[in-house]
Design goal:
This is UbiC transcription regulator-associated domain-containing protein. Residues 26-167 form the UbiC transcription regulator-associated domain. It holds the Pfam family UTRA. InterPro entries: Bact_HTH_transcr_reg (IPR050679), Chorismate_lyase_/UTRA_dom_sf (IPR028978), UTRA (IPR011663). It comes from Sphaerisporangium flaviroseum. By secondary structure, the protein is α+β, with helices and mostly antiparallel strands. It has one domain: Chorismate lyase-like (Chorismate lyase, 3-Layer(aba) Sandwich). It contains six helices and eight strands, in the order βααβαββααβαβββ. It has a six-stranded antiparallel sheet. The two termini are 28 Å apart.
Length: 179
């Protein structure tokens, strides 16, 4: 099973209720998703830096497992600052309807820009077990930090992809035709 994960994410896909479901549907793949965890947890160094909090400070984590034709392919975790999102519908244990982005915007946070980092590395024990990776198989970690129009960090999305189950097509900026 190989899934394409466009970098950067196309605007039409980005605006969908589920990025993964939209990507999978366009590729003829049956997408599945289930929540693994919703609640506070200590921020790792890279999440803390993106959210501008101290490493180890509690942040809200919303972790889900994404599958393609019943094969686990991604662990996606959204992180939020508790000073901005504690006690809001973003803390609900289920998927946010109609979309997470709509839920963020309903709380007054309008998207301004994002920064995305990509890293290939060996998996943690949790990642290897959850994604059912073979020994020696690597993961690709994508961290997208989303900022409001005033520059406030409002959402960090960390996606852990089974490297052998993904192709990462790189898109051009609209109107550009050179690499």
């Amino acid at each position: 099973m190989v899934v394409r994960r466009a970098l950067p994410t196309e605007p039409a896909v980005r605006a969908s209720a589920s990025l993964f479901a939209a990507e999978a549907e366009r590729q003829g793949i049956r997408a599945g998703r289930r929540m693994l965890h919703v609640g506070p947890e200590p921020a790792s160094e890279h999440v803390a830096a993106a959210l501008r909090v101290e490493p180890g400070a509690d942040v809200l984590a919303r972790r889900k497992l994404l599958s393609a034709d019943d094969v686990p392919v991604r662990i996606a975790t959204s992180y939020f600052r508790l000073d901005l999102f504690a006690g809001t519908p973003i803390c609900a244990p289920d998927f946010i309807r109609p979309s997470l982005q709509a839920g963020i915007e309903a709380l007054g946070h309008r998207f301004g820009h994002a920064e995305e980092e990509l890293l290939a590395r060996p998996p943690s024990e949790f990642e290897a077990g959850t994604l059912r990776l073979d020994p020696g198989e690597w993961i690709v970690q994508i961290v997208r930090a989303g900022y409001s129009v005033d520059g406030t960090p409002v959402h960090v999305l960390e996606t852990i992809c089974a490297a052998s189950r993904h192709v990462f097509p790189i898109g051009q900026v609209t109107g550009a035709d050179e690499f």
